[in-house]
Amino acid sequence: MPRGSEQSDFLVIGAGIAGASAAYELQRFGSVRVLEAEPQPGAHTTGRSAAFLVESYGNTTVQRLTRASRSFLEDPPDGFSSLPILKPRPSLTIARPDQCQRLQDHTKLAVEAGARLESVTPEVAEKLCPVLRPGHVAAAMIEPHARSIDVAALLEGFLRGLRARGGCLEKNRRVSGLRRDGDAWQVSCGEARYGAKVVVDAAGAWGEVVGHLAGARPVGLRPLRRTAITFDPPAGADIQSWPCLLDADEEFYLKPEGAQLLASPCDETPSEPCDAHPDDLAVARAADRVQRATTLDVRHIRRRWAGLRSFVADRSPVIGFDGALPGFFWLVGQGGFGIMTSSGAARTAAGLIVDGKLPAAIRETGLCEADLSPEREALRRT
User: Fold this and answer.
1) Taking Cα atoms as reference points, which of 106, 107, 139, 105 lies closest to residue 125?
2) Is residue 289 within 8 Å of residue 252, measured between CB atoms?
3) pLDDT of amino acid 344
4) How far apart are CA 312 and CA 318, in angstroms?
5) The dihedral sign for the CA sequence 15, 20, 23, 24
6) How does residue 2 score in pLDDT terms, banded at 50, 70 and 90?
7) What's residue 42's pLDDT?
8) Per-residue CA distances from 208 to 20, 91, 110 (Å)
9) Residue 381 pLDDT class (50, 70, 90 cuts)
């Protein structure tokens, strides 16, 4: 490697949850350096996530990665965090009469993938979430083992563990150049230079930008803006006993968030990679959809924000080496499930990078390398 470059075995671009968790796992196998473009890790999607662990969420690939992550999130290693990562928060999915078949179809696929779901009557649903509008719910499904995730504690746990194992995090390091030099990569961040045999692209919404700098063929990554709001609950309501409420078509979700209620219209507005800001129309839709399904009166919105969730065509994550660029590893496309799949995805990445195959515990979920590969057919048609 050229003189003056900082060298490591693995160089991870991005210190959001994907990059931090992958770096944490890779540090067991060699030296790791993480380059973060912002002053603080998790400044974009990770830090704006209202994350919860729901095994029935997403497609089959996502559900399997979620199951592979659960044991770590429930019982992380000693010293990983002084706070519990998970807190009980059942998930209640509701359907109007016109949504019942879709709820049934989704439930069937989720159960086949290993999710633990129970059907409940509309009357039970209204008891579990007492602000549901009478007559709105025609069918409902509860996931009693769903959990809220402390995103800040999880991210800090991965970064603390990385540092404890000897890894390095460098902030304010936006990658401006990537080139292959012999059997290694040379990475530029302005005047700073870094070298590594393996580069991990965990740049979130900027993942395709990093891939372009490396000369990679696009994988079709699309950043989509999602909006969230918080507002006051009814006076005297015991919201801590409420479940996370999901619409069967993902038209909105509602959940307790501290002393407030958090809601989203589940919007997916295409966006360039950026510091996302909420759109007034999406904010209004969030309030309207909550009010249509519940008796809540969303008058005063306390906070509003937006983040970018990035998907590829088949809405499964992209985890694997680029077929045309030796040593360039994709870890992108986590969509809205990057937090709850983080441990499974990180162990998957480390296994593929170090051993060229999935770890046994990941394979036991039914996943295979082709499900995640950047070379899979669904991506190469884009």
Assistant:
1) 139
2) yes
3) 98
4) 8
5) positive
6) very low
7) 85
8) 19, 33, 30
9) low
Q: Are 90 and 144 in contact (CB under 8 A)?
A: yes
Q: β-strand 328-332 against 318-321: which pairing, if any?
A: antiparallel
Q: What is the 3-state secondary structure (H, E, C) of 57-107?
A: CCCHHHHHHHHHHHHHHHCCCCCCCCCCCEEECCEEEEECHHHHHHHHHHH
* pTM of this prediction exceeds 0.90: yes
| 111/213 Cα distance (integer angstroms) | 41
pLDDT digits over 290-330, tens only? 999 999 999 899 999 999 999 999 999 999 999 999 999 99
Tokens linked to 83: 């706070």
With vertex at residue 175, the alpha carbon angle to CA 371 and CA 165, rounded to the nearest 5 degrees, is 70
**What domains, with CATH codes, occur in the chain?**
6-50+151-221+314-380 (3.50.50.60), 90-145+223-311 (3.30.9.10)
**Tokens representing residue 38 in the block:** 């912002």
CB 239 within 8 A of CB 256: yes
In this prediction, residues 110-134 reach a mean pLDDT of: 94
- The token duo for 47 is 């830090």
State the CB neighbour count (10 A cutoff) for residue 84: 12
Find all residues with CB under 8 Å of 356, minimum gap 6, and list them: none
Spell out a b/e string for 58-70, using b for 16 or more CB atoms within 10 Å of the CB, else e. bbbbbbbbbbbbb
- Condensed to tens digits (0 to 9), the pLDDT of residues 95-118 reads 999 999 999 999 998 898 888 999
Query: Chain centroid to CA 187: how far?
Result: 26
Among 342, 297, 52, smallest CA distance to 202 is for 342
